[in-house]
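Quick question, first post here. What does this chain look like in 3D?
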Amino acid sequence: MKCTFLWSLILGLSSITGLYAQKNELGGGLGTLNYIGEVSGFYNPLNIRPAGYVFYRRNFSPVVASRFALTVGNIQATEIGSTPAGDIRKASFNGLLTDISITFEYNFFDYILNYLDRKYARKYCPYLTGGIALYNFNSSSSEIKKTNTNTQIAFPLGVGIKYMVTDKINIGAELVARKTLSDKLDGVDNNLINNKLASDPEDKDYYYFFGINISYTFYKVHCPKN
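> Answer (accepted):
Ran it through. Tokens below.
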């Protein structure tokens, strides 16, 4: 009897361990892009433009995850009507941005991965995210009167929250700022306008993504060999 009970316990523990073996999510969402730089020195809601993204998330533990994402959207800004100086220069730009990023997430709460435990777990989880991104931006600048193609590295940093809807469906929202290493996102870098420097070369451009997403979690139960 004791041997039977012990063997059943071992098999049960093996099955439970197998439930954690696959911790993969596929998802996507819609959101907005915005920008801060020479053309717009603050987060101006009038410059918000649509964007979308798809991602793969790997949950290493209930606390740590990584994510690979592809984001595509429009960025635009104009100085007209912003400040008296902006009304004089009248710089503006718009273009399409493509962003590939690898980020890590730190969950403030244990985000239970075993779907059998999810009904007992906290359903929501705020998190911090950060990493590295490679972006390409094709834009046209009205004031500099040129087309700008810019491929550079950026560093994402942001916050988000995710919520377990069912044992496999999750929804979330996040706001992520990306600091670039370039001053050329808006096409206004070290160019001269009316014989005056048009930008501060030490003040790099930022772009911001706010999005709402949905993801599907894949589970694979490993059956014990015996």
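Residues 2-218 form a domain with the Porin fold (CATH 2.40.160.20).
The helical segments are 2-19, 84-89.
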